[in-house]
Amino acid sequence: MTPLYDGPVIDAHQHFWDLEANHYPWLADNTLVPHRYGDYSAIKRTYLPADYLRDAAGHNVVGSVYVEAEWDPSDPLGETRYVSQLAASCGRPNAIAAQAWLDHDDADEVLAAQAGFARVRSVRHKPGNPDRAGRTLMSDERWRRGYAQLARHGLHFELQAPWSQLHEAARLARDFPETLLIVNHAGVPGDRLPDTLRGWRDAMDTLATLPNVVVKVSGLCVRGKPWSVAANQPVIDTLHALFGAERLMFGSNFPVDGMFVSLAGLLSGFAQLVHAWPHAQQRAFFHDTAERVYRPLGLGERSTGNGSLPTNGRTSR
């Protein structure tokens, strides 16, 4: 049997928050917003680099990518300043996916300012629930004008949307081929029922034909069920067949996924999920793809790539 992967890991999707010092509306006392995991009260506690490093102890996690944590929406730059200060003092995170509201009047100004931070590589703006016509912000012309500015500022886009909206994401990727679209949480494969998985696979299959799309395999928990290798093996196998390891990257989604599994358990579980892949592909999944896409700082050996996709990844059928 191939040994389980024990090489370097870059966690491509994690969060920090200090609930005593900063304002995150969804994490405030007496607040529960709709969440695909259900009641998330257990994560309403401060979680900082020291907590993350403790949780990752014993595993070779050499770097991480902070993803905006729905900080006060009136102050997107405040979050980036705070996280950049954490990085300066603690060494984590090594790259940042920042907050930006693409449909706001100041979108271009905010994008320019975010791009000015040393660790910012991308932005996230969740496109929200669909309207009566089934369209989210991804189909809104004002939002798309903001999206069109990303390439000018050298920024990628982090997409978090359920698989049922990925047809809109495919149109974005086609219309803006110069912008790397990073699909968060594996396209949210949902409850794992057969019909759901078929719909999810078809949606991801379309995205896989587009060369400017990569996928973060993160946030794979299911409400009311423990995280398990068995439940996630079909998802991993499908993603590997569609995208290849060079367009996939591991993300813990911690501390959120800590409601279901420890970080050590998650890392060990993912090592089992990919153990049949050649070692080079395992390393791509756990480290090399994230290094290429996010160019993280402070890993000992600084990446010099430009975030472009490999020529050997799947781009068409």
From TrEMBL:
MF annotations from Gene Ontology: hydrolase activity
Region called Disordered, residue ranges: 297-317
Organism: Caballeronia glebae
InterPro entries: Amidohydro-rel (IPR006680), Metal_Hydrolase (IPR032466), Metallo-dep_Lactonases (IPR052350)
Listed Pfam families: Amidohydro_2
Gene3D superfamilies: Metal-dependent hydrolases
Chain intervals with Polar residues compositional bias: 303-317
Record's protein name: Amidohydrolase 2
Ranges where the Amidohydrolase-related domain occurs: 10-295
